[in-house]
Amino acid sequence: MATNLTSLVWGHAEGIRRQLGYAQMLMGHNPGLWLGSSQIFPRDLQLIHAQPVEFLDKSQKERFSHLRNLVYKKRDEENTSVVLGWTRESDGSCEAAVLQGGGTIHPQKEDSDEFNLCVGEKLQVQINFLPGSGTPFDWGFLSCVPAKTRIFRGPSQTCKEDPWDAMILYDCVVSPGAFHNVQRIATRKWDILLLKVCDKDFTHPWLVVNMRDTGAAEQLGPEHEVSIQ
Predict the structure, then answer these.
(1) pLDDT tens column, 135-178
(2) Nearest-10 crossing angle of helices 42-49, 12-29
């Protein structure tokens, strides 16, 4: 398990797929490399070890599903939602907004950015469909609230210069748009595992590694924003 992810070189999309797969395997063998002393929930391990969903497209670099946006409201304009693309450049500010919105980061950096002018509303993950998966759309959004987000700093085994951090989003549901017409997705809630790749070619660095169906969406109650166990 001493292999460094950045030493695994193939064609770009194939290389990234294998790097993600290796990181998931490493996480499965030793989740403490990422989760450290933070509490590990049974659903975390179930997500890490879950079988891949059949519709997730990883066929080419441009088709990798990824964390796309942070949606928030300015404190003095709470009737208006603002969409901030979660890019490599805005990563620190977006993490700060998640922390401010009730999410957790393990461990939190001492020099973390501040984002004190907003009320976090949701994180949006763009899911790209595999061609031929029986859906009438190419992609759609799943989203969750910041309070149901945990970020874990990555180990040096992934990349010495810029380790691959991990993120778990709990109880994601469809955002308005294409997914509402895909019953097998729209009627369910999903846990999503993402890794932040160090490859600078990715404008949106948080890539989806795995997803897990965690039940019927209508089972979400008022308490779903805080309970992730």
Answers:
(1) 667 788 999 999 999 999 999 888 888 889 999 999 999 887 76
(2) 140
Q: Which residues lie closer than 8 Å to 58 by C-beta, 6 or more apart?
A: 13, 17, 20, 64, 65, 130
Task: Name residue 96's amino acid.
Answer: A
Phi, psi of 152 (to 5 degrees): -125, 130
pLDDT in tens, 22-47: 888 999 999 989 988 788 899 999 99
Strands 139-144 and 77-85, sheet pairing: unpaired
Distance CA 155, CA 162 (A): 9
Separation CA 36–CA 202 (nearest Å): 27
SS (H, E, C) 189-224: EEEEEEEECCCCCCCCCEEEEEEEEEEEHHHCCHHH
What does pTM read for this prediction?
0.86
DSSP 8-state assignment for residue 175 = P
